[in-house]
Amino acid sequence: MEEKITIPKRKLIVTGASGFLGWNLCQEAKDIWEIYGTVFSHPVTIDGIKIVRINLTDYKSLRNSFQEIRPDAVIHTAAAADPNYCQTHREESRKINLDASLYIAGLCADYKIPCVFTSTDSVFNGLTPPYKEDAPVSPINIYGEHKALAEEGMFRRYPETAVCRMPLMFGLPSPASASFIQPMIKAMREGAELRLFTDEYRTPVSGKTAARGLLLALEKVKGIIHLGGKERISRYDFGKLMRNLLGLHNAVLTPCLQKDVVMPASRPPDLSLDSSKAVRLGYKQQTLTDELKALIL
User: Do 99 and 153 reside in the same domain of the chain?
Assistant: First the structure.
């Protein structure tokens, strides 16, 4: 009887494993890869994932982790992703959103391994949608500015980098990080008022679909790719869709405009992404109704 040969899995570092996107990515990738998930301020335990506690803004510690793990690839999802926080904490935003990203690109270049970076639709100003990959960046807040600088800097350090511009995302929460729909559902069920913009448009996608897009990019992309959803929708219409699917017809949804809510970070009006390039590579988009039904029903 022939002895069965077991081929060891390739090693993948997923930064920000405790965050919403990182956690969803770990769930999608753990059957294919041996995953080392980095965490820092929100340590978690994830079944089947080797958790590494590390400050990504400390280059020496990051380099040592690369030397110990010897990864075959990296997907960098860790970020300070709240635009209002970034606007009021510019140094903290710069360290994680820009500096750490450049460190990772440099190390991936040294090891000659695939590097995937999760950027954002907020690199655009929202005035000329839908945005293709070759559209000029024009951020209007610090979060978008630091992500745009990270894109440029990572390409300089490692031209093989895959930059994935991510849309608004929703889905199952990680142990440490919810998506924006969890507080919306809670408010609807409790009868609390939800004020939602009628003049802010995005192309949202579930964390599961986004994670699959990142794994596709890992195998097929060098350069920029957009991983937006199938439909352009306002925050208010998204709320109405959720309300109808949940059958919470008495939920209080109040339409409002961006100018009605004062926040530290400016908000672009329409960050719709054209993701046709990714679709041609095999990116599978679903309708919002199908994605939400799978999550909340």
Answer: yes
